[in-house]
Amino acid sequence: MPTLTSNSSELTWRPARVGLSFRFGLFALWTSRLDALLPCEHFTEWPDDPSLTNFPYIELENGIDAIVMRSHPVSRPLPAFSLKGDAFWYSTKSYCHYWTDLRGSFDGYLAHFSSKSRTTLRRKVRRLFAQWPNQVHFQTYRTPEEMGAFLKLARQVSRQTYQERLLNAGIPETPEFLNKLQKLAGSDSVRGFILSVGAEPIAYLCTPARNGVLNYDYLGYAPEYANWSVGTVLQYLAFESLFAEWRFTCFDFTEGDAPQKQLFSTHSKTCSDLYVFPCRPSMFLLAFAHYALGRVVAGCLRLAGFLKLREGIRKWLHR
Predict the structure, then answer these.
(1) What distance in Å separates the CA atoms of residue 171 and residue 183, rounded to the nearest whole number?
(2) Which backbone phi and psi does 277 adopt, to 5 degrees?
(3) Nearest by Cα to 48 from 69, 73, 70
(4) DSSP state of 257
(5) Distance separating alpha carbons of residues 70 and 66, to the nearest angstrom
(6) Is 158 in contact with 164 (CB distance < 8 Å)?
C-alpha cells in the first residue's frame, strides 16, 4: 500500500520546464514558462507536510526560477503566500488527490467496494456487453508497434468530445506525441485501452507511467454512448487488466474530485500545488498576478452559481 513518509532525505530533484497557467475557468489565457526543479519521487513518497521537505533553496540562486511540487500532501490547506527566508511559497490551490494501489488481486481490490457498488459496476459491464452481443471488445496496447494503432483509434473518439471541440484538450495527434508514446512503450511504461463496438471505438484511456506509477492522463468517450456508462466500463476493465499484470504499483488519478475518481480509488489525501520562488520582484509580480486572476475567476463562479448559470453552462459544454 502506498504510504506517505515524513523522511525527506531521500527526495531527489530533476530540472524541467514547467508552466504556470493563467486560466479563466476552463480556458487558458497565457502560460508563463519557468526553469524549475521537480521531485523525482511520486507524491506518495513525499513528507506529509511541506515543512518537513528539505527544499534545495540554494538552487534558486543558480538560475532556477522555482521549485515546483504539485500535489504536496498537507495536513490542512496552505495559505496562498508564505515567506520563508530568501524564498516565498505560493500555493495555487488545494484539493483531494485520489490514487489506487495496484498491488494485490482484482478480487481483493473489488472487496473495498460496498456490495451495492460492486453489483452496480458489474451490472453496467454486463449491460453493455448484452446490448451488443459478441460485438463489444476491450483491447490493451503496450508495445511501440501498437501505439500508432492505439492513437488512431483514440483520436476517432477524442474528436467527438466536448473537451476537444471546445477546449482543445483532447488526446494529441502530433508526431511528437506519438513518438513520446512509442518511447514510453519501449520501456514498458505506458498502457492504452480501447473499448469498441464492432469496428467503432467508443472510449479510450491513455496512461503513461513513471517509476511504476500510471497517470490518468487522457480519457474520452463517444457522447452517443454516454447512457451506457462506457467510461466507467472501460475503467473497470482496465483495472482488471492491470491487476492481472502485476507490472505497476499505483494508478494516480491526479487532482480533482470527479465521481469516477472517488469511486475507483483506494486512497486519497488533501494536497496543495506549491511553487517555491526566490524573493525577486519579478517572481512576486508573477505570483500575485496569478493569484489575483484566480480570485476574479472564483468571484465570477460564485456569481454564476448565485444566478444558477453553472448547471446550464455545464450542460451546454457537454452537448
Answers:
(1) 17
(2) -110, 150
(3) 73
(4) -
(5) 12
(6) yes
Q: Tell me the three cell numbers of residue 206.
A: 491513455
CA distance 140 to 100: 19
Every domain of the chain and the residues it spans: 13-98+268-317, 104-248
The rounded distance, in Å, linking the Cα atoms of 290 and 146 is: 41
CATH of domain 104-248: 3.40.630.30
Sorted by sequence, the CB contacts under 8 Å of residue 85 that are 6+ apart come out as 57
What are the angstrom distances between the C-alpha of 193 and each of 34, 114, 212? Answer: 33, 26, 18
Q: What is the DSSP letter of 9?
A: T
| Cα dist from 144 to 14, 172, 178, 220, 263, whole Å | 26, 17, 9, 22, 31
Question: Residues 279, 285, 291, 292: what is their CA dihedral angle, to the nearest 10 degrees?
Answer: 150
pLDDT tens-place values along the chain, 319 residues long: 444 444 445 789 999 999 999 988 767 789 999 999 999 999 989 998 998 999 999 999 888 999 999 999 998 889 999 999 889 999 999 999 999 999 999 999 999 999 999 999 999 999 999 999 999 999 999 999 999 999 999 999 999 886 766 666 789 999 999 999 999 999 999 999 999 999 999 999 999 999 999 999 899 999 999 999 999 999 999 999 999 999 999 999 988 788 889 999 999 999 999 999 999 999 999 999 999 999 998 888 777 666 665 555 555 555 5
Q: What is the spatial distance between Cα 163 and Cα 149, in angstroms, rounded to a whole number?
A: 22
